[in-house]
Design goal:
Blueprint lengths: L1 H21 L9 H9 L1 H13 L6 E3 L7 H6 L5 E6 L2 E15 L5 H24 L7 E14 L2 E14 H9 L3 H8 L3 E4 L2 E3 L19 H9 L21 H4 L11 H26 L8 E5 L2 E11 L8 H11 L5 H5 L10 E9 L6 E9 H8 L5 H7 L1 E4 L2 E3 L8
Parallel strand pairs: 3-4, 9-10
Antiparallel strand pairs: 1-3, 2-3, 4-5, 5-6, 6-7, 8-9, 10-11, 11-12, 12-13
Helix pairs in contact: 1-3, 3-5, 5-6, 6-7, 13-14
Length: 419
């Protein structure tokens, strides 16, 4: 009995260590929002990794940051394929890996290949992810990316290449799919997901014999199109009725201002921006620290957001002791009492605003004497910041022209209702 207990304990230790290696370290994530979530929810992420590894698949599956690699090489690489990522303005729990099934292109068409990989690997992983987090989910999207292999002949020569399958699911869709018990229920749920094969959108059919590739030109799910038709003017993502405010959503000064130029932002772009502005950033951190409270162990960096490049400056906001309220009220108070007072000073360091698009004031909000901690990012464009600095825009209009992320999720903040 003692020997069995010892072996069982050793197995738990080994599995826990193995799971830790399959979850991306927070230190390997540059974006502060995802990094904070990665650190806070490491226990759930490791539980997910363990659950996935204990499942049986028809062929070998490995978590991986790299796709389309040889299985022998895969065995030697770090298998950290579970992490939080920002995709445009979505916070996504991303799970990536290599599945070493090899389909015959002659016998299995691409739609049926996607269906098989989804059923064999992606659906079990999704169920494990939903189970690991339960209702405690600090994000609104799940993202799965799995590479499988396809055998074919080119000019009579046998070849094998990888296909990448990506499935993006809103949280509520993931829950419906995870608990679905019939193919019809699964199909109804998956139609609200976004599915891509080698970056091309497609419709995934789990039933029937003729799965169809999406017609050319379809880029968004029906759910996204419905939301776009409804428009953002009726209700914010957190339920505040923005049209009831006396303050216009966006200042007329911004509406009539020329649109900012579109940029192509690559990792090289972000590195070049940092090198070009390194001395100015260091001086800003040194001179503004008494009022900004920059995080000393995290350097400012440039991030890509939507189609722009923003300087992310990590800082800490301490609200008065005894402050209570929802996360939205705390975010509003942090803006009024801290961030709004940094806009004008920050602009003095960047008189030429043509090289990048704005500043991401990324702060950790704390209340003394409590365990309350939340991450809030105020991603503000230079055009709106200048409008605010000249007193042509209100603080509300400044926020409405930018983006606010609370714990990595897009949120609408009503400053007047949050008082």
């Amino acid at each position: 009995m003692r020997r069995s207990s010892a072996l069982a304990g050793l197995a738990v230790v080994v599995l826990s260590a193995f799971a830790a290696g399959q979850v991306t370290s927070p230190m390997d994530i540059n974006d502060q929002g995802p990094r904070a979530l990665q650190s806070k929810y490491m226990t759930q992420l490791q539980k997910l990794a363990t659950s996935v590894r204990l499942q049986k698949y028809p062929y070998a599956f490995y978590f991986s940051r790299k796709l389309d690699i040889d299985e022998e090489q895969q065995k030697t690489l770090a298998q950290s394929g579970i992490c939080f990522k920002r995709l445009d303005d979505k916070m996504v729990l991303a799970i990536t890996g290599n599945y070493y099934a090899s389909y015959s292109a002659e016998l299995v068409d691409r739609s049926h290949r996607v269906r098989q990989t989804f059923n064999d690997v992606m659906l079990p992983i999704l169920r494990a992810a939903v189970s690991a987090f339960g209702s405690d989910e600090p994000f609104r999207w799940y993202g799965l990316e799995v590479a499988h292999h396809v055998r074919s002949k080119v000019l009579g020569v046998s070849t094998e290449a990888a296909e990448n399958v990506v499935v993006l699911l809103p949280r509520e869709v993931a829950h419906k799919l995870a608990v679905a018990t019939t193919p019809e229920q699964q199909q109804a749920a998956v139609l609200d997901a976004e599915v891509y094969l080698d970056s091309k959108p497609m419709v995934l059919w789990l039933t029937g014999d003729e799965p169809q590739v999406a017609p050319k030109g379809i880029e968004r799910s029906a759910r996204d199109k419905k939301a776009a038709r409804a428009g953002a003017q009726t209700q914010s993502p957190i339920g505040f009725d923005l049209t009831s405010s006396d303050t216009p959503l966006v200042s007329e000064r911004l509406v009539s201002a020329p649109a900012a130029p579109m940029r192509i932002v690559t990792p090289d772009t972000l590195r070049s921006l940092y090198l070009a502005n390194e001395d100015t950033i260091a001086r800003m951190v040194r001179e503004l620290d008494p009022q900004a409270h920059f995080v000393p162990y995290v350097l400012p960096s440039f991030i890509a957001f939507r189609q722009g490049a923003y300087l992310q400056v990590p800082m800490t906001t301490e609200l008065p002791a005894g402050t209570v309220g929802s996360q939205y009220r705390l975010a509003a108070m942090a803006f009024d009492q801290h961030i709004a007072h940094l806009v004008r000073p920050a602009l003095t360091y960047f008189p030429d605003t043509s090289t990048f698009d704005g500043i991401d004031f990324s702060t950790t909000v704390k209340i003394p004497g409590t365990s309350t901690v939340q991450s809030v990012e105020y991603i503000l464009g230079f055009q709106a910041m200048q409008c605010f600095a000249k007193y042509d825009c209100t603080g509300q209009q400044l926020l409405n022209a930018g983006a606010v992320l609370i714990n990595g999720e897009r949120a609408g903040i009503d400053l007047q209702k949050s008082q």
